[in-house]
Amino acid sequence: MSETKISTDLSTLHTFRLPAKAQDIIFLDSQEQVNDIPSDAYILGGGSNTIFLTDFKKPIVCVRVKGIKVRQAKEHWSVKVGAGEDWHNLVLFLNKKGIHGLENLALIPGTVGAAPVQNIGAYGREVSDFIDYVQVWDRQERKLVNVSTVDCQFGYRDSIFKQYPMRWVILEVHFLIPKLWQPELSYGELKALNQPVSATDILNKVIAIRTAKLPDPKVIPNAGSFFKNPVISRSKYSELIERFPTMPYFELATGEIKLAAGWLIDHLNLKGFKIGGAAVHMQQALVLINSGGATGADVVKLARHILSVVYENYGIELEAEVRLLDEKGLVSL
Ligand SMILES: Cc1cc2nc3c(=O)[nH]c(=O)nc-3n(C[C@H](O)[C@H](O)[C@H](O)COP(=O)(O)OP(=O)(O)OC[C@H]3O[C@@H](n4cnc5c(N)ncnc54)[C@H](O)[C@@H]3O)c2cc1C
Catalytic residues (predicted)? Predict the structure, then answer.
């Protein structure tokens, strides 16, 4: 385990790139080092879903465990991946090997280890569709444990790892990918692909859509969708659709309705709205950006402003999808 004791600039370790510093950064390169993980450390992958609002006083453990191993059985592929591998590189690697299924999740930034934490999803797929189990270091019990998909308690942008962020450190993700590939084309722009469609067609289309729609964090610092899409009751939906007939919605299997948080924000003409250096992205209202020189206070003020106008206009409480940290740890808005 390599450790940095000098004051380190965190702006290079999270994609929103606020000017925060940390005292104690530890790089976890292999499973053998798990005993050294401090119980109060924040676990960091690629920092694409994390915003350091201030300097950080607790230790940070950057998980960099590498390695991809593929085995095949009659009907499926088993793929064991180190938590520190880059997610998009894994998607490309598997596609090249003819192992298909993850292509809808292409170009999501971050590490493989963070993917189960918020059960990353896009274009009709979620990573939980392909997870067999996750190997973790249990910081409470101080032992290695394999957590089954059921025990991961996956939900929409949710899992047990997100609910108890100080307990487990994900070291490996074990995927089970059926050899019988089924394309997932239910999402609007993918429907238009010419048949017969290949996994590589989907991969290329997803990359093209995302490149056109979302700001590249390397160019415009951001953390992707800032808020989760709200899930509301049918009666609340009936009230809203009468007032906003063009409002997009998705019916869930539970009978509840999921709304597009980006549409709710955009409909209030907030694209481009700015507080200090924090702004609502001009093309994608769900993404807040660091337009230059943003501070943590700017981000919090902007996010709270959005929360309050969305509540005033629709009676809906948005919830942050990003992880916000002040000097002591995770905070809510
Ligand atoms: C431009 C852009 C587009 C995005 N698009 C999508 C999208 O389409 N769908 C989607 O779901 N997300 C999306 N995201 C969000 C983000 O990419 C994902 O949440 C990703 O999984 C975060 O990975 P990371 O390694 O950067 O996580 P980090 O920000 O480093 O960490 C995220 C959370 O996971 C925890 N964590 C990280 N690694 C581990 C580990 N090894 N063990 C235990 N806990 C850990 C952290 O403590 C933190 O709570 C997008 C982000 C950006 C910037």
Answer: 157, 225, 321
What CATH number did the domain enclosing 180 receive?
3.30.465.10
The predicted pLDDT at position 195 comes to 84
- Write out pLDDT tens, residues 179-222: 999 999 988 789 889 889 999 999 999 999 999 999 999 999 99
Catalytic residue among 157, 159, 172, 323: 157
Q: Cα angle at 59 between 53 and 61, to 5 degrees?
A: 95
pLDDT at 6: 47
**Close Cβ partners of 5 (under 8 Å, ≥ 6 residues apart):** 23, 24
Q: Whose CA is nearest to atom 4 of ligand 1?
A: 224
Query: Does residue 103 carry a pLDDT above 90?
Result: yes
Q: Indicate if 321 belongs to the active site.
A: yes
> Which CATH number fits the domain that encloses residue 37?
3.30.43.10
Q: Check whether residue 165 and residue 204 sit in a common domain.
A: yes
Q: Do 38 and 96 share a domain, yes or no?
A: no
Q: Which residues pair with 77 in a beta bridge?
A: 72, 177
- Is 225 a residue of the active site? yes
Pick from 210, 235, 254: which residue ends a domain?
A: 210
Per-residue pLDDT tens over the stretch 1-19: 655 554 689 999 999 999 9
Q: How far is CA 168 from the centre of its chain?
A: 17
> How many structural domains is the chain composed of?
3
In the reported structure, the alpha carbon of residue 87 is separated from the centroid of ligand 1 by a whole-number distance in angstroms of: 10
* pLDDT classification of 288: cutoffs 50, 70, 90: very high
Domain boundary among 210, 229, 249: 210
To the nearest 10 degrees (0 to 180), the angle between helices 87-96 and 199-213 is 150
Average pLDDT, the chain: 95
Range of the domain at 160: 68-210
Return the residue whose CA atom lies nearest to atom 20 of ligand 1. Answer: 110
Residue ranges lining ligand 1, Cβ < 6 Å:
15, 42-50, 63, 83, 108-111, 113-115, 117-118, 120-122, 161, 165, 168-170, 214, 217, 222-224, 323
Report the residue among 49, 89, 229 best suited for mutation to probe ligand 1: largest number of ligand atoms under 8 A from its CB: 49
